[in-house]
C-alpha cells in the first residue's frame, strides 16, 4: 500500500472492466434449448410469445420480491394478495367493463397498502418478515374468501384483462408491462439514491443507520414495491387465468425462487433486476420443461425447495 | 527443556519463557518472559496495542506463540485451544460476560458440567454446592436468582464464581473494573484478595494505577511487545510505572500545531448532556481546533461519540450549533447539521464491507440526496481530489471495501465525510487497527482539516494519540468529563486522572 | 449468613416449582372465566359447558404435540417451518401403510416417527453444518416434502383402521383418551427440559451460543437433536391427527396452519424467538389460548374465513407483543 498518492490516475475503469456475466443467462439458455429440443414447437413465434406472456406475472412479481430480498426480508404474502385482488375485482366489476380502470387503480392502492402494513410490522414490531408476511397471507386469503363467500364469484370484463391478454402488432401487452416495470425498477434500484440505500440496509443495517439511512422507511418502501408488483401481476394473470380462489397460489415461493435463481442473495444486500427477470423466465421455462417431460405438477415444489436451500447454502459457504 | 528459571524465593507456578508472536508484519510480542507465583496478584499493564492482549491470548490458549514455552509447576504445557488452557486450570474472567441471562446462578455455574446421576440432573445438589461456593466467596445471592436480572457487578461475581467453582489455579482478570461502580470495585477487590489467600495465581490487567498499587504484589509492564519492567509493586511508584509504559514513539508523525485556539464557526456546544452512561456533559467544539477526549474503557467515551451523532442522542441537555438549538435524535439530523462521524467499530458500523468502495464513499452524499434523487456520481476529478487529500490510491473503486487494509478502509470512511464537506467531525478511535503509515496520514489530514476551519473531536483510548493530535485534551471518567489538559501535559498526569482516585 | 442461605432451601424449592408455572396461565384462567358470561349470552350451543372445554382440549392436542416439538427448536434459537408438511406426510403415510389393517399399526407408527426424526435431522444439518438460516432451510424442506407428497399421493384414498381411531376417540376413566396422551407428553417433555443434562444444554445453547461453546457444550449436536425432536413430534402430531380424521390427505397439515400456530403458541407461552427462554408449560398455555380462541369463534358462529383472518392477525400480534421490546434489527 502506498501512502504517497500517485497522480497516475487509477480511477475506475468501469466501462473497460469485463463484468462477469450472470450465470442465470446460461441457465436460461440451457433450459430453453432443452425445451426446444424436447418440443420444437417452441421455436415458433406464437408459442414463444405465449410462454413469455404466461411468465410475465412471475417476472413482475420476482422484481418486486427482489426489492424486499435486497432489503434483507421476504414477502410471502404476494401470492394470496394476487388471489385477494382477483376475487375482489371480479366481485366488484362483475363483468362491468366501465369500471375496469378504477379497479386496476384499486388493485394498485390495495397492493401498496398491504405492503406498507407488512413493512410497518417488520420495521416497528420487529416481527421476522417470514412470520409477518405468512400471517398476512392468512389474513388476505381469509379476507378474500370471506368477501366472496368462499367461492369465486363474479367475473372480470375484457377491459380488465386487456393488459394480460391483448397484443399490439402481435406483441403481447403484458411483455410491454414487464419491460416498463423492469426498466422503472432498474432505474430505482441502480440509479437513485433510494436504491443505493436499499442495498446498504440489506447488507449492514447497523452501518446504514449510523450513516443516516432511514432504515425503517426504506424497508417499508421495499414492501410497498412488492405489493405494487403483486397488484400488477394480478391484472396480468387475469389475462389468461380464470377467477378462482387459488389464482395466486404458490406465486410467493416462485417469486423467491426466481429471484434466487437470478442471483439475489437471501437475507440481503445483493441482486439485480435483469438477471432476476431472466430467473423468472428460467423458472417458468423449467416448469414447462418438467411438464413436457411428464413430471407431475407438484414436482415444481420440490424443485423450488431445492433451489432455495442450495442457493442459501451456497452463499453461506462463500462467506 | 527451557532455561533455568531465575528463582525469586519460591519456584514460579506459571512461567512464560521467551514468548514471541508475530501477526503478519506486526511483531506483537518479542521474547517476553514472566513468572507468576501462587498466592500473589500479578498486575499486567501497558498501553493499548502494547501486546498485553496478545500475551493474555497466549496464556488462555486462544493463540499459539511462534516461539517460547509455557511452564506450569516446572513442566512444559502446550495450549492450542482455550479448552486445553482450562484443563490446565487457567481461567479468565472476560470483560464481555459469558453468562446465560435467562438461567439461574446455579444453572450458570454448572453450565456444561452439570451433575447427573442416572440421567437425572441433581438440581438440589447443584443448588447446595452453588450456595456453598457463594458462601465461600461471601456473595450474598440466592442460587435460584436469574442472572439476567443481576447488576453488572453481581454478574461479574457469578462469572468469577464459575471460574473458581472447579479446579482452577490461575485466574486472569481483564480490566474487570471497566464497567463497575466504585462500591462494586471494593467488593471485587476483597474477593480477589480472598482468592489470593486461597493460593491462586491471579493475573490482573488494568490501566488504572490506583488499582494496581492497591491490589497487586508484583507488576509487569509491557511496551512495544517487550517486557519493559517486572518488579514487586512495593519497589516502584505510579510515576515510575507510567513512565515505563509510555514513550513518544510516534512523535515525528504528529503534525505541528499552529498554537492558536479556534473560536470561529462552527461551534457545537452541549450543556448538561445526560444519557446512557453519560452525565453532566458540558462540551464545546470550536472551528479550527482539534479537541481530544481521552477515556478508558467504560468511561462513557463511546457513548459520548454516539450521543453527538444522535444514535442514540442525549436524553437531556441543550445542544447548540452556532448558538442555535439543534435536535440530535438520529444520524440524519446530525448529517444535515454538517456533522460527520467515524465510528469505533469500522467493520460493523462504518462500512458495508461487501459493497464496492465507491458505494461506501458515496453513501453520505447519497443519503443527503433524498430517495428519488439521482446519486451524485462525484465526477472523477472531485473524487480524485478527495482521495489525494487522504492519500488513498485505490486500484479499483468497484472492489469490495473488505479488500482494503484497515488504514485504507478508514480513509474511505473519512473521504465519505469530505465529499459532503462535513464541518464538524466526530472520530471515535480513528486509528484503531490502522498501520503506522496510514496513522500519520490521518493525523496530518485531521490537522489540515482543522486548519481549514473545521471543528474536530477525537475520542480515543490511546493517550499518545490524544496528546499528540489535540489542541486541548479532555479526560472522561464515570460518564462525565472530569478534567481538561493542555496538549503539552504530562502523559502520567492524564493517565492518573483517567484512572480515577483510589477505589478501595 | 450460612444459616440464612440454608434456611432458604425449602422456600426456594417452592419458588422453583412456581416459576415453572408461567404467568400466561393466569391469563388463560382469566380468559376462561370472562368467556362464561359471553358464551351464555351469544353462544349457539347455550353457554360454557364441560363439553366445550373437553372439545377445546381435544382439538388442541394436535397443535400441542407440534408446539412442544417447536419449543425445543425455538429454545436453541432455531425454528421449524416444515412441521405442517411433516404432519401431512405422517398422516398420509399412516393411512397408506395401514390401509385399514390393524396389524399394520405396529409397523406404521415407529416407521413414521423415525421418518419425522430423520427429516428433523436433515433440517438440523442444514442449519448447523451448512449455516442456512433456519427459517429458509425449513421453508425449503417443507416445500420439498409438499412436492413429494402431492406428486405421490394426490388422488390417494386409504384410511386407518377403526382400532387406531381409539387413540383420538377412545375414553379412559370417563375422560377422552387424548387428554391422557397430552398429559403424558407434557410430563415427559418437561422432564427432559428441566431434569436432564440435554435440557440444560438446550437452554444454554439458546441463551448464549458462544458461552455454551466455551463451557464445553457441543452446540451443533444439541441443535441437531432439538430439530430431530421437533421432526419426531411433528410426525407424532400427524399420527394423532390421522386417528381423528380417519384418513390422511396432503393438505391436512398446511390447512391447520400448524407451522405458524405452533410458533405463535410457543411465543405466547413466553419463549423468546432468539432462544434460551421458554418451557413446555408455557407452550401448553399458549396452545390452550389459541385453541380456546378457536373454540370460542366456533361457538359464537363466526364465519370460517373471517376466522382465518383473525388467526393471521393473532399470530402476528402474538409474535409482535414479544419481539417489539427487542432492540435488534430483524429482517
Tally of separate helices of chain B: 17
Give me the strand/helix succession of chain A: HHHHHHEEHHHHHHH
Largest pleated sheet of chain B:
6 strands, mixed
Number of DSSP-assigned strands of chain A: 2
Silhouette of chain A: globular
- Name the CATH superfamily classification of the largest domain in chain B: P-loop containing nucleotide triphosphate hydrolases
Structural class designation of chain B:
alpha/beta
Low-confidence region ranges of chain B: 1-8
- What's the number of helices of chain A? 13
| Interface with most residues | A-C, 53 and 49 residues
Number of domain units of chain A: 1
Task: Report the mean per-residue pLDDT of chain A as an integer.
Answer: 88
| Distance linking N and C termini of chain A | 25 Å
Q: Return the structural class of chain A.
A: mainly alpha
Helical content of chain B stands at 25-40%
Rg of chain B (C-alpha, Å): 25 Å
Order of strands side by side in the largest beta sheet of chain A?
Answer: 1-2
Give start-end ranges of low-pLDDT stretches of chain A. 1-18
How would you summarize what this structure contains?
The complex is a heterotrimer of chains A (319), B (504) and C (331). Chain A has 319 residues and is mainly α. Chain A contains 13 helices and two strands; from the N terminus they run ααααααββααααααα.
Task: Give an overview in words.
The complex is a heterotrimer of chains A (319), B (504) and C (331). Chain A is mostly helical. Chain A contains 13 helices and two strands. Chain A has one domain. Chain B has a six-stranded mixed beta sheet with strand order 6-9-10-3-11-12, with helices on both faces. Chain B has a six-stranded mixed beta sheet with strand order 18-19-20-15-21-22, with helices on both faces. Chain B has a four-stranded antiparallel beta sheet with strand order 2-1-4-5, with helices on one face. In chain B, helix 8 (238-245) packs across helix 17 (491-499). Chain C has 331 residues and is mainly α. Chain C has a single domain (22-35, 46-323), classed as ABC transporter involved in vitamin B12 uptake, BtuC (Orthogonal Bundle). In chain C, strands 1-2 form a two-stranded antiparallel ribbon. In chain C, a hairpin with a 2-residue loop joins strand 1 and strand 2 (175-176). The longest helix of chain C is centred in the C-terminal third of the chain and has 27 residues, at 219-245. At the A-C interface, helix 4, helix 5 and helix 13 of A face helix 6, helix 13 and helix 15 of C.
Amino acid at each position: 500500500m502506498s501512502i504517497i498518492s500517485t497522480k497516475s490516475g487509477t480511477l475506475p475503469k468501469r466501462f473497460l472492466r469485463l463484468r462477469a456475466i450472470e450465470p442465470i443467462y446460461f441457465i436460461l439458455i440451457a433450459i430453453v434449448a432443452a425445451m426446444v429440443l424436447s418440443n420444437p414447437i417452441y421455436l415458433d413465434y406464437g408459442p414463444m410469445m405465449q410462454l413469455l406472456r404466461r411468465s410475465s406475472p412471475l417476472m413482475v412479481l420476482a422484481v418486486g420480491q427482489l426489492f424486499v430480498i435486497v432489503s434483507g426480508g421476504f414477502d410471502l404474502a404476494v401470492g394470496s394478495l394476487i388471489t385477494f385482488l382477483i376475487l375482489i375485482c371480479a366481485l366488484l366489476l362483475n363483468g362491468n367493463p366501465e369500471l375496469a380502470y378504477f379497479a386496476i387503480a384499486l388493485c394498485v392502492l390495495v397492493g401498496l397498502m398491504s405492503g406498507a402494513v407488512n413493512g410497518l410490522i417488520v420495521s416497528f414490531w420487529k416481527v421476522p418478515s417470514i412470520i409477518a408476511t405468512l400471517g398476512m397471507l392468512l389474513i388476505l386469503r381469509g379476507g378474500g374468501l370471506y368477501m366472496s363467500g368462499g367461492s369465486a364469484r363474479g367475473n372480470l370484463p375484457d377491459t380488465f384483462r386487456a393488459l394480460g391478454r391483448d397484443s399490439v402488432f402481435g406483441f403481447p401487452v403484458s411483455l410491454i408491462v414487464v419491460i416498463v416495470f423492469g426498466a422503472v425498477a432498474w432505474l430505482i434500484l441502480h440509479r437513485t439514491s433510494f436504491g443505493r440505500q436499499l442495498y446498504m440496509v440489506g447488507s449492514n443495517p447497523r452501518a446504514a443507520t449510523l450513516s443516516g439511512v432511514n432504515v425503517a422507511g426504506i424497508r417499508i418502501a421495499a414492501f410497498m414495491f412488492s405489493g405494487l408488483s403483486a397488484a400488477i401481476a394480478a391484472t396480468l394473470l387475469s389475462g389468461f387465468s380464470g377467477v378462482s380462489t387459488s389464482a395466486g397460489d404458490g406465486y410467493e415461493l416462485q417469486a423467491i425462487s426466481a429471484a434466487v435463481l437470478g442471483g439475489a442473495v437471501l437475507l440481503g444486500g445483493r441482486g439485480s433486476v435483469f438477471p432476476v427477470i431472466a430467473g423468472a423466465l428460467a423458472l417458468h421455462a423449467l416448469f414447462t420443461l418438467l411438464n413436457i417431460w411428464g413430471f407431475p405438477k407438484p414436482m415444481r415444489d420440490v424443485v423450488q425447495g431445492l433451489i432455495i436451500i442450495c442457493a442459501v447454502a451456497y452463499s453461506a459457504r462463500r462467506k | 527443556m527451557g532455561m533455568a528459571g531465575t528463582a525469586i524465593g519460591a519456584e514460579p507456578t506459571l512461567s512464560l519463557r521467551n514468548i514471541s508472536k508475530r501477526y503478519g508484519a506486526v511483531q506483537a510480542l518479542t521474547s517476553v518472559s514472566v513468572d507468576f507465583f501462587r498466592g500473589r496478584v500479578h498486575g499486567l499493564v501497558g498501553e493499548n496495542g502494547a501486546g498485553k492482549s496478545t500475551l493474555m491470548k497466549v496464556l488462555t490458549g486462544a493463540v499459539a506463540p511462534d516461539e517460547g514455552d509455557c511452564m506450569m509447576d516446572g513442566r512444559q504445557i502446550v495450549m492450542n485451544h482455550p479448552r486445553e488452557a482450562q484443563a490446565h486450570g487457567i481461567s479468565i474472567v472476560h470483560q464481555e460476560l459469558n453468562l446465560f441471562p435467562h438461567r439461574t446462578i446455579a444453572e450458570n455455574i454448572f453450565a456444561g458440567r452439570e451433575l447427573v446421576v442416572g440421567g437425572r440432573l441433581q438440581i438440589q445438589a447443584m443448588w447446595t454446592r452453588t450456595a456453598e461456593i457463594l458462601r465461600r466467596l461471601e456473595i450474598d445471592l440466592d442460587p435460584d436468582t436469574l442472572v439476567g436480572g443481576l447488576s453488572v457487578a453481581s454478574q461479574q461475581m457469578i462469572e468469577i464464581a464459575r471460574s473458581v467453582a472447579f479446579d482452577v489455579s490461575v485466574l486472569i482478570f481483564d480490566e474487570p473494573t471497566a464497567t463497575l461502580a466504585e462500591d462494586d470495585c471494593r467488593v471485587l477487590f476483597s474477593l480477589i484478595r480472598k482468592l489470593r489467600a486461597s493460593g491462586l495465581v491471579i493475573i490482573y490487567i488494568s490501566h488504572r494505577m490506583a488499582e494496581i498499587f492497591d491490589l497487586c504484589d508484583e507488576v509487569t509492564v509491557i511496551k512495544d511487545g517487550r517486557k519493559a519492567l517486572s518488579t514487586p509493586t512495593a519497589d516502584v511508584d505510579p510515576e515510575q510505572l507510567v513512565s515505563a509504559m509510555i514513550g513518544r514513539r510516534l512523535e515525528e508523525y504528529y503534525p505541528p500545531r499552529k498554537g492558536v485556539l479556534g473560536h470561529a464557526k462552527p461551534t457545537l456546544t452541549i450543556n448538561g448532556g445526560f444519557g446512557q452512561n453519560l452525565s453532566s456533559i458540558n462540551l464545546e467544539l470550536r472551528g479550527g481546533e482539534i479537541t481530544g477526549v481521552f477515556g478508558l474503557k467504560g468511561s462513557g467515551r463511546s457513548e459520548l461519540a454516539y450521543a453527538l451523532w444522535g444514535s442514540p442522542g442525549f436524553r437531556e441537555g441543550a445542544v447548540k450549533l452556532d448558538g442555535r438549538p439543534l435536535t440530535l435524535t438520529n444520524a440524519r439530523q446530525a448529517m444535515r447539521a454538517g456533522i460527520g462521524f467515524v465510528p469505533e467499530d469500522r467493520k460493523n458500523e462504518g462500512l458495508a464491507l461487501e459493497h464496492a468502495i465507491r458505494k461506501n464513499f458515496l453513501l453520505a452524499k447519497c443519503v443527503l440526496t433524498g430517495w428519488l434523487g439521482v446519486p451524485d456520481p462525484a465526477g472523477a476529478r472531485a473524487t480524485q481530489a478527495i482521495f489525494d487529500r487522504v492519500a488513498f490510491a485505490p486500484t479499483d473503486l468497484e472492489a469490495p471495501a473488505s479488500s482494503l487494509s484497515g488504514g485504507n478502509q478508514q480513509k474511505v470512511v473519512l473521504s465519505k465525510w469530505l465529499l459532503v464537506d462535513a464541518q464538524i467531525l466526530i472520530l471515535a478511535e480513528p486509528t484503531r487497527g490502522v498501520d503506522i503509515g496510514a496513522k500519520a496520514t490521518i493525523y496530518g489530514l485531521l490537522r489540515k482539516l482543522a486548519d481549514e476551519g473545521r471543528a474536530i473531536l477525537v475520542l480515543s483510548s490511546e493517550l499518545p494519540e490524544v496528546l499528540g493530535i489535540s489542541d486541548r485534551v479532555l479526560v472522561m471518567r464515570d460518564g462525565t468529563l472530569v478534567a481538561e489538559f493542555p496538549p503539552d501535559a504530562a502523559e502520567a498526569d492524564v493517565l492518573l486522572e483517567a484512572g480515577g482516585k483510589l477505589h478501595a | 449468613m450460612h444459616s440464612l442461605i440454608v434456611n432458604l432451601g425449602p422456600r426456594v424449592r417452592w419458588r422453583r416449582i412456581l416459576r415453572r408455572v408461567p404467568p400466561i396461565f393466569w391469563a388463560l384462567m382469566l380468559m376462561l372465566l370472562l368467556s362464561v358470561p359471553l358464551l351464555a349470552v351469544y353462544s349457539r350451543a347455550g353457554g360454557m359447558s364441560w363439553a366445550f372445554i373437553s372439545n377445546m382440549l381435544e382439538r388442541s392436542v394436535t397443535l400441542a404435540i407440534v408446539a412442544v416439538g417447536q419449543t425445543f427448536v425455538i429454545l436453541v434459537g432455531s425454528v421449524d417451518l416444515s412441521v405442517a408438511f411433516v404432519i401431512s406426510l405422517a398422516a398420509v403415510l399412516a393411512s397408506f401403510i395401514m390401509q385399514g389393517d390393524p396389524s399394520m399399526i405396529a409397523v406404521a407408527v415407529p416407521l413414521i416417527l423415525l421418518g419425522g426424526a430423520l427429516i428433523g435431522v436433515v433440517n438440523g444439518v442444514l442449519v448447523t453444518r451448512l449455516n442456512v438460516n433456519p427459517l429458509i432451510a425449513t421453508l425449503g424442506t417443507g416445500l420439498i416434502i409438499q412436492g413429494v407428497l402431492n406428486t405421490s399421493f394426490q388422488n390417494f384414498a386409504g384410511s386407518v383402521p377403526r382400532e387406531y381411531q381409539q387413540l383420538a376417540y377412545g375414553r379412559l376413566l370417563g375422560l377422552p383418551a387424548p387428554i391422557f396422551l397430552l398429559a403424558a407428553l407434557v410430563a415427559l417433555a418437561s422432564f427432559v427440559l428441566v431434569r436432564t443434562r440435554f435440557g440444560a444444554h438446550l437452554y444454554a445453547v439458546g441463551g448464549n451460543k458462544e458461552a455454551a461453546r466455551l463451557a464445553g457444550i457441543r452446540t451443533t449436536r444439541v441443535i441437531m437433536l432439538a430439530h430431530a425432536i421437533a421432526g419426531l413430534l411433528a410426525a407424532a402430531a400427524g399420527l394423532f391427527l390421522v386417528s381423528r380424521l380417519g384418513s390422511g390427505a396432503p393438505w391436512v397439515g398446511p390447512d391447520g396452519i400448524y407451522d405458524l400456530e405452533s410458533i405463535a403458541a410457543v411465543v405466547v407461552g413466553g419463549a423468546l424467538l432468539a432462544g434460551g427462554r421458554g418451557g413446555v408449560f408455557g407452550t401448553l398455555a399458549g396452545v390452550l389460548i389459541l385453541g380456546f380462541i378457536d373454540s370460542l369463534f366456533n361457538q359464537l358462529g363466526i364465519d370460517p374465513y373471517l376466522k382465518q383472518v383473525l388467526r393471521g392477525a393473532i399470530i402476528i400480534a402474538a409474535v409482535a407483543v414479544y419481539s417489539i421490546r427487542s432492540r435488534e434489527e430483524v429482517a
